[in-house]
Amino acid sequence: MSVEAFALPLATPLETAAGRIEEREGFLFAARGGTGEATPLPGWTESLAACERALRDADEKERWSAALAACEGAPAARHAVSQACLDARARAADRPLYRELGGERECERVPVNATVGDADVEGTLSAVETAVHAGFETVKVKVGARAVAADADRLDAVRSAYPRLELRADANAAWDEAEARAFLDATSGLDLAYVEQPVPGVDALARLTSVGPVAADESVVDAGVDACLDAGVAAVVLKPMALGGLDRARDAAFAALDAGVTPVVSNTVDAAYARSGAVHLAASLPDPAPAGLATGGRFARDLVPDATPVRNGYIAVPRGNGHAIGGSAGE
Hints:
The chain is α/β, with parallel strands linked by helices.
């Protein structure tokens, strides 16, 4: 087993509630021919130092079960160990990672959404036009940075220009309940797929589900997927790094499917190995919803170049055994 640190510069800084992030730091965990990635993100996972401690502890274990147990309470670390285990087993069985996860059908590619940041109406339309011309059929528009009415106008303009586009909005818990209700009311005729995490807290989400379609993102990590399903959300956004691994994210996805709720695979601006794993996770699901995985372009430099390129609104599932990118760390 081995633990290798990395630091990757972002093409543009990432603004989070915990502050500005200009590079993504993490670790590759390699064992028995498999590789996994741990890329902690403040506010979503354990700290970088706590992640390293958990991985160093796991590195001393002889069995996968003991290595995984060493990472309890450190979701990014557990993600790395779990992914390495799945990758090693898939390679040994000569099959792709999505098959090792339990995927029952052949899958060559998964659909992904484009993300449009905050801008005025003109800027939003321009960004959506670029995404549509690139082949995206689903676009997520970031909202919450300006007045509710102004954000509603942005979505109205997009819907008028692109009546068949699958359209999502993401507020990143920026609103209180009154603001969220106002936005849901104002956009009720726009056929939005959902508004992602309009308010903080699963109880507040539950009170909004009668107003319009809402999705849980942060609340999946904070309260658990079962609480979000009980709240009546339309979709759950699943970020394997924050949930403690591909295996746990897949369990959450099937809990959602069993409840008639859409699981949407996403990521926490992860590097190449974790993004590849998330693509395999989406590929392992029946009829996966467009995933939030078109984030490779956020990196100025990655662990593996062009590991999950987006073409015409899809990412091809990496071909080969295991996660099928870059070989195994240490090879």
